[in-house]
């Protein structure tokens, strides 16, 4: 069964891929509202993400105009760039101007909205179509924006209608005049730049009336140069035609190159259950796909072949981590939507909730690819909501929608669509890697239930066979995790068990996943003897009021702002810690002396030292984290590819050069 397009519950187009926190995100134009016949009415961007190139999480329409950019009435093809720990979106208002906004995470909320580029001869921005912006950040941190386009009879015409310009350090203002990109034969739209090694590749879509030798109509062509703005030379075709306009986004992820594009495969499906529910196929209803992007030994691009199967899955899914119900390989009959009464934790505006699985009817299903059950799953837990009179069941099947059943979970009414309950069932005969896992929905109601998330319990696979998400950390044997909680989702690994009065405690790992620089959480510290609980809204916590009370304390933590959003609001008991009296009563209550055993080395955090008593289970406060010069996080593994990187360990940062 086809896995391109990569999302089939919505019509999507104009992909722009970014890497954020070791995960691949793709912004897409939301095509569901385009009118029948011809034309576009695009006012939102759909965001999807993956870490395995096979199962895609639908984050919903995270950006809308005019809600997030009041100067725009339309949001045509998105441009996105990452720098300094922020995501920047460049948003064309039809073809009349380009606006910009930024956010602290891919899901938003977006702020700082402003008009960025308007047509002006003095700025060299007077192109027929002022749209299809693309943000690019070079290895030295310099940002650029590319844009433009126009019809074959436009003024300026093909070969003269695409532009590039430097962005200022804020990524929200432009250094004029813009540069006209050279040798763009039969240029139409969809300007895009990527860099491989020291070579800059400029790609664009060709028009449909090209008579230039070596250039095909309606394709993605590309140029190369050793400069991001000048000296480009035409090389050939990157991607063939797709029976209409096209838009391509090359991206490197996990040491492979991929090309995202849109075509019209989804609207051509004859079974309506395999297409977006209730949306006419008439008009511009496009769909995003992806395939491998490969290079010749001389650096030229091999023309990409568009496939139905897409690229290979690069890691197995760990079902013992909480899985969003909107994480899908392919689907039949369902839809996704923002949860009613949501708290804005996805999209971040307070006006929409997180995405949930909806419009579930009898015999609908979703499929997940490459699921590693390790030594075996024994239980399935799912969070669902069902209105009064609605109910049904979930059949867990291997291989196909009619394959062997490994468990059946009954879902009862929760009274309304906004009340969520956890339902569970036993699972049998689920071990090793299941190529395809189907959740098949059964029942007689018009809409059976809605789903938020699920998790399996059992014995996970070893890291050598199918590890959890690369940023997921399992708890150590010393952590105290309640059996009713998901140890894989909410981990407090290496949690200290002893401490000393006067020393602030900062556990090395926090909830959900490896701690991020931009994560937020609160700590709940409960005195076991008195039952009194205190909340600390900081990265660390003091075990008692006044910071001078020894005793036994029960520590819990709650995520308040995090990615993935499924973690937000979750609370878990991390463990119990015993605080003994300080050995040197003359020491400062809040700052250990320089000779204290708890004082970190120069490579540790300086302001919030980690507890380091003889009984402590914490070997070091934080593993170093690595970033490229664009500010994009690369994880905790030291990069092996040649280049210049930033290493951050606590508050210490240094430049690392890999040769």
Automatic annotation (TrEMBL):
<comment type="similarity">
    <text>Belongs to the glycosyl hydrolase 43 family.</text>
</comment>
<feature type="region of interest" description="Disordered">
    <location>
        <begin position="585"/>
        <end position="659"/>
    </location>
</feature>
<protein>
    <submittedName>
        <fullName>Alpha-N-arabinofuranosidase</fullName>
    </submittedName>
</protein>
<dbReference type="InterPro" id="IPR006584">
    <property type="entry name" value="Cellulose-bd_IV"/>
</dbReference>
<dbReference type="GO" id="GO:0030246">
    <property type="term" value="F:carbohydrate binding"/>
</dbReference>
<dbReference type="GO" id="GO:0045493">
    <property type="term" value="P:xylan catabolic process"/>
</dbReference>
<keyword id="KW-0119">Carbohydrate metabolism</keyword>
<dbReference type="InterPro" id="IPR052176">
    <property type="entry name" value="Glycosyl_Hydrlase_43_Enz"/>
</dbReference>
<dbReference type="Pfam" id="PF03422">
    <property type="entry name" value="CBM_6"/>
</dbReference>
<dbReference type="InterPro" id="IPR006710">
    <property type="entry name" value="Glyco_hydro_43"/>
</dbReference>
<feature type="compositionally biased region" description="Low complexity">
    <location>
        <begin position="585"/>
        <end position="614"/>
    </location>
</feature>
<keyword id="KW-0326">Glycosidase</keyword>
<feature type="domain" description="CBM6">
    <location>
        <begin position="321"/>
        <end position="457"/>
    </location>
</feature>
<keyword id="KW-0624">Polysaccharide degradation</keyword>
<dbReference type="InterPro" id="IPR005084">
    <property type="entry name" value="CBM6"/>
</dbReference>
<keyword id="KW-0732">Signal</keyword>
<dbReference type="InterPro" id="IPR023296">
    <property type="entry name" value="Glyco_hydro_beta-prop_sf"/>
</dbReference>
<feature type="site" description="Important for catalytic activity, responsible for pKa modulation of the active site Glu and correct orientation of both the proton donor and substrate">
    <location>
        <position position="132"/>
    </location>
</feature>
<dbReference type="InterPro" id="IPR008979">
    <property type="entry name" value="Galactose-bd-like_sf"/>
</dbReference>
<dbReference type="GO" id="GO:0004553">
    <property type="term" value="F:hydrolase activity, hydrolyzing O-glycosyl compounds"/>
</dbReference>
<keyword id="KW-0858">Xylan degradation</keyword>
<keyword id="KW-0378">Hydrolase</keyword>
<dbReference type="Pfam" id="PF04616">
    <property type="entry name" value="Glyco_hydro_43"/>
</dbReference>
